[in-house]
Amino acid sequence: MAKKQKEVVIVSAARTPIGKHGGFYNDISAEDLAVLAMTEAINRSKIDLKKIKIDQVVAGMIYIDSENQQIYLPRNVAARTAKKFNDTDNLNVAPGKTTLRICGTGFQVIADAFDAILLGNANCVISFGTENMSRTNLIHQGRRKKDGVWDFEDAKMKDYLLEGFNHNLHKTLMPKTAEEYGTLVGISRKDCDEFSYLSHVRAKDAQSKQWNRFNKESKAHDYNKGIFTVDTVDQAGNSLCVWKDEGTKYDISIEELQNLRPLLKADGMVTPGTSSQISDGAACAILMDREYADNNKIPYLAVIKGYEFATVDPKIMGQGPVPAIKNLMAKLEMKMDDVDLFEVNEAFAAQYLGVEKELQLPRDRTNVNGGAIAVGHNIAATGLRITTDLIYELKRRNKKSGIASACIGGGQGGAICIEII
Fold this sequence. Notes:
Layout: E1 8-15, E2 19-20, H1 30-45, E3 56-60, H2 73-84, E4 96-99, H3 105-118, E5 124-132, E6 138-140, E7 144-145, E8 148-152, E9 157-159, H4 160-165, E10 166-167, E11 172-173, H5 174-185, H6 189-216, E12 230-233, E13 239-242, H7 254-258, E14 279-289, H8 290-295, E15 302-311, H9 321-331, E16 341-344, H10 349-359, H11 382-396, E17 401-408, E18 412-420
Parallel strand pairs: 3-4, 3-5, 16-17
Antiparallel strand pairs: 1-14, 1-15, 2-14, 5-14, 6-9, 7-8, 10-11, 12-13, 15-18, 17-18
Helix pairs in contact: 1-2, 3-11, 5-10
């Protein structure tokens, strides 16, 4: 008798509201945000940490925040979260690792858990991505001196955030890759302004619906959507209650977007209004072997059907979702009509529109609640954030299948397919 093929399910998924630069989370570290997201994911899952063994914790974080010891991130977040549940011998001692795939890190933390479970190395893995870009450091570039391990050479200071926007080997930078890709595919500045406006409109409409639920229901309403209400204190001890993404503009207009100056060239498409926002926030998911979940009577949200990473020319890195989605759909023998909803990260309007045009994505089924232009792009968490939002939007619409995708700096694309049970 043939052995039953393993399946991986998402038991729980939650993400913080996304803060804008210098906003909600200016005084809260990336590690703090991750603890909030992991605590919420465990609460949503209703798993008993005394009975369900956490085999591994997978973390994603890109930018250095002086309030964190990034090298210890997965273990620190697990230990701090375990304390909230009075857990001393499960999550508290689970092995942890940090993974990195730039803008695809949020997908990679899922992929690492997926692979570990399929290979039989784990039954339950907690994955999270977190970022506080507002607190990214200025780095001293001096090397250690040969004759004194604690002494350094004089050197310039480096903006660690800006460093990630440049790709020195290929003599390009992220906005330039969007300009080149958009031009190649035939996207205009007008197209970009109009799409950016739509992103804010969709995000604003989603927030309005969320506000109505917030007023009508108890805090239990958080379990009915990906985003949860952050109720905490900042470093100064001030109360902080956040329920919506901060970057969405309610008074945006096409005219305002049209009047913004291009970032790179006079007739360019990339402006501050047609680019994703520098953002802060975290997301977390709990993944399990489906049979293990069934045997332990653990309900789950979705099955992960598969994932894919692909490469493109780094000078048009925004094209990355095109081969990633094509390859994933071919592997899963899916057609466009088989996918109920798509989420494609809006790194830049020109980049998203190029992907939409090449894949002929149905706009009425893609980024239906707005994307990173209006919501934000907290880089290491983004893949997990849009996967979480996709799950809950599919459930809300009583639909089944969804694909989430993003372009990735360096000339890559990532995609994941989920199916609601």
